Amino acid sequence: MNTLTIWWDTAADGPTNMAADECLAAEAERRGSLLMRFYDWSTTTISLGGFQKIEDANRVGVIRGVPLVRRPSGGGAIVHGSDLTYAAAVPKSHPWGASPQAFYDALHGAMVESLAQHGIDARPYPAAGTLPPGGDGAVGSDARMVPDESRFFCFDRRAAGDLVMAGPTEGTFSKIMGSAQRRLAGVVLQHGSLLLHSNTSVDGAARHRGVADLLAEQRPIDRVALSRAWGRRIATALGGSLHEQGASFLSAHQHDIAALALRFREDRWTARR
């Protein structure tokens, strides 16, 4: 129950990644423990939140031509390719699986500590005190507890527990990490994205500042070192052991993933809402 098992996967397309995450959820329920995988994308891809409307995506001109996949989890659309993407699955019988916010906060809290270890100051939103109003998506204290679900992109939204960094101008905050869940019969699947740097494959409203862009020295972020540090912090918070897998989750479950990916490749899934 208090074991964290982690896989690092090679890059894959959107349907394969979503299928692997569903397979991860099934495996977490079978094992009765917390599982995570970190992964990349073979090309810049937009993952649409499970409850977003396809016509809203079609109206966003700056993403036309970019591959689109629908996540099984909720939240806003994410442009992947310059982020650290993860999926985590925990049985509902686990304390972190019993409360949506507990699971969210445990993983995000461990990331705050991991970023601090790398000299990066991030905080949960809303932080203690009042976040000042301003540009870059910051909102005043009266509205800060209300997620703006009308905004298409995840990184234009704010919800309790999201991670933010100080923005490019005084008094502003930029969101750098968000996650979303899908609660299944016996397990909770959580997707999340830490935006490492802006994605130069897209323009306009689809491009957001990442961690490296918000640092004064604008240094690159070592995603492998950061994800390993994060895994250790999560295991500590869990009060259990950490098992890092040498083989990828994709290769270990390739047949099941290939079968599940067929659904994510179908237009009737992508355009189901």
Instruction: Specify Rg, calculated over alpha carbons.
Output: 18 Å
Beta-sheet strand percentage?
Answer: 15-25%
Biggest sheet strand order reads 7-8-9-10-6-2-1-11
CATH superfamily label: Bira Bifunctional Protein, Domain 2
Please identify the structural class as seen in this structure. alpha/beta
Topology:
Blueprint lengths: L2 E6 L5 H18 L2 E6 L5 E4 L5 H5 L9 E3 L7 E3 L2 E9 L3 H4 L1 H18 L5 E3 L36 E5 L6 E11 L3 E9 L15 H4 L8 H16 L2 E4 L4 H4 L1 H12 L1 H4 L3
Parallel strand pairs: 1-2, 1-11, 3-4
Antiparallel strand pairs: 2-6, 3-5, 6-10, 7-8, 8-9, 9-10
Account of the protein in words:
The chain has 273 residues and is of the alpha/beta class. It has one domain (3-118, 178-270): BirA Bifunctional Protein, domain 2 (2-Layer Sandwich). The protein has helices at residues 14-31, 54-58, 95-98, 100-117, 211-214, 223-238, 249-252, 254-265, 267-270; strands at residues 3-8, 34-39, 45-48, 68-70, 78-80, 83-91, 123-125, 162-166, 173-183, 187-195, 241-244. The strands form two sheets. An eight-stranded mixed beta sheet has the order 7-8-9-10-6-2-1-11, with helices on both faces. It has a three-stranded mixed beta sheet with strand order 4-3-5, covered by helices on one side. Residues 127-146 have low confidence and may be disordered.
